[in-house]
């Protein structure tokens, strides 16, 4: 027994997913992927491991401390287990699919591993599903991915979804546009991260005024874009603002009922993003359902303008209603194979007896069957 | 460009699966899993990595040289990436699901990694899908898993399926039953592995006669069981033979059209198996579609009598017809969101325009769309 117990022991943050839950998870993944496919996003499947040098190059470097590494006895080079699929999909887009017409719509779903769980997500293995829309600079692209995330989450039954829009480039644009010295920029950035209005005001000058105005605009999207429109932003920041306004308009037009907020000074977690970004929540559910936003596929300013999102499966599963237990139909020995096939084609889950039984109904109940097939008919097993 | 090309480089035996193929693979997996679920097999999902000591203990030791290992900085212990899912599922059955009623029907689908590909299967990452039927000694259990593999493969469109039945315990039973010395047993085993009838005969004695008779029985199942019935087998081997005969009868009754053969002297690749085993083929397709058979879950003679099978996804994909390309419908800018939703609910894959276009039909064709939605109607894009 001790040996058996030892064998059941798994490393921290790793789990066996058991019946019901495993099937439910797979169903949710396939429904999300089906929604992506119906919207023209085509599935790709990168490998679980890659050369460390390619997986962790460029923007991947940020994940280096989170990544399991191993030696490949074949190539004698270091490999890494993917901690994230987004960069793999971007890699596929700019290499193998470089000659496909743009915009390129790709989707993906798979498992990732991280060396350490976080406080919010102690799991070290979890599922990611998402899309990338590559080679598209238009605000319609930003709106499309937000609306797709919303539609897909609704399709799997997630309720009370809200989207928080951010523009992580906006604060830097303001500071750059006003030629703010580096130390003041850093001080403002810190104050904004703490949402410390007093500290922002203490810096003084036009930048502090503008940033205070931006911070005050945080909240429901319609009000936020109205307040931001009243600010006299430097040129680059003004372009960001106009773009955000257009994205908000497109989303509001297509989904007026969606709870949409804007936080124009938030940037944490979006270090990789180059424009309109967003986080998805479900009211009352701990953690983010997912996040996404603009980036340059291939990395650097010469990369292809792209946007996309990743949904975190563990959080999504907490946000959707538990599935009803499926009825199970016990087939006593001697049941005709054709009857079994017909019943399954009608959607019954069938459970075969392996031997003749004195009391088939009792056996049906023991095997958690809700129904039993006797005399050519389905009967409740209770 | 050189940097981009380098990033595209993957370790030998690892691949990016691209659109069409990735979607097709996922569809096949889910159809197989759906067939398993309809037959009462419930999905479990073990983690990609485990403690090396538990993953490679007992029967797992045979996979040790095929397994990637890595250090866990959290537990400071060695982890292993699973080279196979069968043993993980057996582990779940005898630990976490020890108190579930037997027989326990479990299914699984996921990716495995191996240090080296084989000549027949150069891939180092591939998908496994399968079932385990745990805690059942009856021949009906053996027949059930063979018939389920057959039904599932038919359901995904694999044609010309054949099943080769083996009893890897039969030759050892004969040799033990006749108190054959070890060296003669080894000599006969080698001769049988080479299908070398002359060498078998050269050993002489009753064992050589029986084994020659068994070797001659290889072929179509009905003939094989008839020929085996004419042999005067020692007690233990006779029990194996009767069981095989019953399994053949059950399979032939339920699926008379299935090409079913028996090779009573084959054992290679079934070192782990303790009874009726089988290999699945599709005529004209290179490699095995899958294999399965009896074993003891938990390992050792005290383990639970179990049977199951694993399908190899790469071979299965070669055995099923390529999917027809799906029609894609281009939605010009300004298409009503409700129209798009309705068209998708009718099964259309829609591809949104991101801006107003002078020639939407040309753009539709450029994006590989077969149809375009204009004037409230679907039109061919050609």
Automatic annotation (TrEMBL), chains A, B:
The lineage of its organism: Bacteria, Pseudomonadati, Pseudomonadota, Alphaproteobacteria, Rhodospirillales. InterPro entries: aa-tRNA-synth_II, aa-tRNA-synth_II/BPL/LPL, HisRS-like_core, HisRS/HisZ, HisZ. Required for the first step of histidine biosynthesis. May allow the feedback regulation of ATP phosphoribosyltransferase activity by histidine. The gene is hisZ. One of its GO terms (molecular function) is glycosyltransferase activity. Its main location: cytoplasm. This is ATP phosphoribosyltransferase regulatory subunit. Heteromultimer composed of HisG and HisZ subunits. HAMAP family: HisZ.
């Amino acid at each position: 027994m001790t040996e058996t117990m030892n064998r059941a022991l798994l490393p921290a943050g790793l789990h066996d997913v058991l019946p019901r839950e495993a099937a439910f998870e797979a169903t949710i993944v396939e429904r999300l992927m089906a929604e992506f496919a119906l919207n023209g996003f085509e599935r790709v499947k990168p490998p679980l491991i890659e050369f460390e040098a390619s997986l962790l190059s460029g923007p991947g470097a940020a994940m280096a401390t989170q990544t399991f590494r191993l030696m490949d006895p074949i190539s004698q080079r270091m490999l890494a287990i993917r901690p994230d699929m987004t960069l793999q999909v971007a890699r596929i887009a700019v290499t193998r699919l470089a000659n496909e017409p743009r915009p390129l719509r790709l989707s993906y779903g798979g498992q990732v591993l991280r060396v350490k769980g976080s406080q919010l997500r102690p799991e070290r293995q979890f599922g990611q599903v998402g899309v990338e829309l590559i080679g598209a600079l238009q605000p319609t692209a930003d709106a499309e991915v937000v609306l797709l995330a919303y539609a897909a989450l609704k399709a799997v039954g997630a309720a009370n979804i809200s989207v928080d829009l951010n523009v992580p480039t906006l604060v830097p644009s303001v500071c750059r546009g006003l030629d703010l010295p580096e130390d003041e920029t850093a001080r403002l950035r810190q104050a904004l991260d703490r949402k410390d209005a007093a500290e922002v005001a203490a810096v003084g000058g036009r930048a502090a005024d503008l940033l205070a105005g931006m911070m005050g605009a945080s909240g429901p999207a319609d009000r936020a874009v109205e307040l931001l429109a009243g600010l006299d932003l430097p040129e680059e920041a003004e372009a960001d603002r106009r773009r955000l306004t257009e994205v908000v308009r497109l989303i509001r037009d297509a989904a007026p009922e969606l709870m949409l907020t804007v936080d124009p000074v938030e940037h944490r977690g979006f270090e990789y993003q180059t424009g309109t970004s967003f986080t998805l929540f479900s009211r009352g559910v701990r953690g983010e359902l997912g996040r996404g936003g603009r980036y340059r596929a291939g990395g650097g300013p010469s990369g292809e303008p792209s946007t996309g999102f990743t949904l975190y499966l563990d959080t999504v599963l907490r946000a959707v209603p538990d599935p009803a237990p499926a009825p199970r139909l016990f087939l006593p020995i001697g049941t005709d194979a054709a009857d079994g096939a017909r019943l399954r084609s009608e959607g019954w889950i069938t459970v075969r007896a392996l031997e003749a039984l004195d009391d088939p109904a009792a056996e049906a109940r023991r095997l958690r069957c809700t129904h039993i097939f006797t005399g050519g008919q389905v009967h409740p097993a209770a």
